[in-house]
Specification:
Blueprint lengths: L4 H17 L2 E6 L5 H13 L3 E4 L2 H8 L16 E5 L3 H14 L4 E7 L2 E3 L1 H9 L3 H42 L8
Antiparallel strand pairs: 1-3, 1-4, 2-3, 4-5
Helix pairs in contact: 1-3, 4-5
Length: 181
């Protein structure tokens, strides 16, 4: 069953929309993966707020023109799928590298992360970085720490004053030792 020109144009438009809406994309060679493995990969990528799509090379090359993903054009040969996200490229890289450990036949061909082309080895390095949520949590901690220390210093003055008053009260209440002759 052949694909009509209208279907090709629709798929081309969908791919163009994918590349316009995404900030990061990773090309993978999915040769050797069976259907349950691809289904599991899609599930893991959805959990990372990413998508996975098997593409036709010629349509993908056309869809790349005029986008920040143009450097990927040279890597569209053989069975190629695109994993893409518009939010967190680290989560995408983590999901792909984690899945790659369970399915070594999955090969990363190339990637563009936030407009910058990176090598397949750099995708593994990217996966080692903390995600956006972790970075936000660290930033919040760093912003919050000085405030906590300031509040602690402010609380120290009344607390220390109370300790001095309690000690003075105890000393007052104690009987004075009578000097022996």
């Amino acid at each position: 069953m052949s694909v009509t020109r209208a279907e090709k144009e629709t798929e081309l438009q969908q791919l163009e929309d994918v590349f316009k809406e995404s900030e990061s994309a990773i090309l993978v060679d999915y040769r050797g993966l069976n259907v349950p493995q691809v289904t599991e990969l899609r599930r893991q990528l959805r959990a990372a707020k990413a998508r996975y799509r098997v593409v036709k090379n010629t349509l993908a090359k056309r869809a790349l023109k005029g986008t920040s993903f143009e450097p990927l054009g040279a890597h569209f040969s053989g069975p190629t799928a695109v994993a893409y996200t518009g939010t967190d490229p680290v989560a995408l890289a983590k999901a792909l590298t984690a899945f790659g450990k369970t399915a070594p036949t999955l090969k990363i061909k190339a990637a563009v992360v936030q407009g910058r082309a990176i090598r397949p080895a750099e995708v593994t390095e990217l996966a080692a970085l903390p995600g956006k949520r972790e970075l936000y949590a660290k930033l919040l901690f760093m912003l919050q720490a000085p405030m906590q220390q300031f509040v602690s210093v402010l609380n120290a003055v009344p607390r220390d004053l109370m300790n001095v008053l309690v000690a003075a009260e105890k000393k007052r209440g104690e009987p004075h030792p009578v000097p022996s002759a």
